[in-house]
Design goal:
alpha/beta, 6-stranded parallel beta sheet, 9 helices, 47% helix
Length: 198
Amino acid sequence: GVDHGRFTPHEEPNDRARLAEKFGVRGPYLLYIGAGDQRKNLPCLIRAFARSGLSKDLELVLAGPISSKRRRELAELVAKTKLEGRVSLLGYVDDDLAVALYRQCLAHVFPSTYEGFGLTVLEAMACGAPTLTTSQSSLGEVAGDAALIIDSADEETLSGAIQRLVSDSELRASLRERGLRRAQMFTWQRCAAETLRC
């Protein structure tokens, strides 16, 4: 389920200013929120972002409880792919700032290869973030037709999907609307009722 009282598409007047002050995030950006373990596929995401050849004004923001060792590895990859200044490693962010990040992002990218459920995808959709994810494990089922879904989370496929998402504003608008409808299907009340019926 999703806490629809917290994860909403209704922007606060100071969302953008808070992100700029706290993280230095000002321009358009793609967003990933989650942990940094291997199944999350973050090195592939960074390489795919570099490969996409998109405008230098576009940033990639990675937020979540990523270990210091993993952050160092990712920072080395950022340097190797010549993306310094375009990739931000924010570390853990609280729910209020996560919601602001979702609301302000150009799109949410979640290239995980395995999830037990994939709550992050629904939270992003509930905030109105057009979402790109994989069909791996539960993610395709959770996202339904409300996300841009790729069957393979390899660098070439992910890069092409990122290019498509960034360049097609009509696609992003469609995904936003479908995502909002999809997220409304998942409530904690429904979850509790269905659990009781089991």
